[in-house]
Amino acid sequence: MKASFPASFALFRRPSECEFRELVETHQSRVYSIAFRILGDSGIAEEVAQDVFLALYRDLHRMESSEHVLAWLRRVTVHRALDARRRRSSRVDFDAEPFDDQRTRVSNGFVADFPSAAPPIGQARVEQLVASLPGIQRAVILLRYQEDMLPPEIAIALSMPLATVKSHLQRALKLLRTKAERQVKEVTHG
After folding, report:
1. Could you give the CA distance from residue 33 to residue 16 in angstroms, rounded to a whole number?
2. Which residues of the chain have pLDDT under 70?
3. How many Cβ atoms are within 10 Å of 95's Cβ, its own excluded?
């Protein structure tokens, strides 16, 4: 989906309330989805999304294009969600909530494209497995498969070397494959 500025929006000026509302409505599902899938907590994901849009409002005059806005939103959402996750990591009893596409009206759901050797498992289980990944691996997987970003784009968004992004992707996919195989074995032998 190509993001676009409202037709009346002129770059390098403060947007009107209506123009900004249109930008929020265009991107709110994506921002919330990324935050929720990193955090696994709808309340904190909503706070992160609100914080991201407040920051966008402050920095919108610096945006050069609709693609710049989209890239900025992805990058800032991932960083703020990872920060929130780190702040919560000291808390015990963390269980990720299931992601509800109907409740959030996410237009581009997460679909992992696992290699054909991976055992078949349901979408809900894939999301649970992704939720069990370490924060940065989860973020890289979400950007790659939910946001359909290529590794060079992820490297730019996360300000990390391309080789590091590829390494996180490989490790995360290997870990997901191992966990999925273990789940299938438990179901078939249990």
Report:
1. 26
2. 1-15, 89-121, 190
3. 8
